[in-house]
Task: structure prediction
Amino acid sequence: MFVDLLKQGGPVLWVILGSGVLAFGVFIERALHLHRARIKSEDFLKGIMNILSRRNITEALTICDETPGPVAYIVKTAILHRDQSREDMRAAVEDASLAEISRMERRLVVVATVAQVAPLLGLLGTVLGMMESLLVLQSQAPLIQSADLMGGLIRALMTTAAGLTVAVPCYASFNLLVVKIDRVVLDMEKAASEIIPFLLAGTPDEADRAT
Result:
């Protein structure tokens, strides 16, 4: 029954379903990426600061390389620019942050586009289905069989339903990904605000007095 309905949906229906599958794949990939990107930033920073307080720069950089996520990359960038001025260090960290945010938002536009386009495709399918029914009505008048009109009407209703069915979860998925990205960005900002004064001051006690 369901397969027969899909066959009657026409090409617009398949375009809607295909875009929905594409958006779902992007959502899964981005969700997994953001899940790996978020770490316990407080524990990570404490460990890095303890290592840096012993002047073990190489070990700190190694841990940053082995730790996934933007927070570790931000901390590594700050460590690599530890001998520069505050302005230069902040500029390097900001550039690294922008690069990481862009990387997290990669392909996110696909989900947003499908959420916006799917209802329009559904409307297009509805218009085409109604036009088909009207053409049948015009060509077969006055002897019209209801079965001849059903194909276009079914196609119109199915594309509308498919467009909404794809658009609603895509919109929710997009907002969920945005929330996850915002949380990682907050962790990045917090890490930058702690590691930069620490590196400039040299020791944890001096960093506390500097802030």
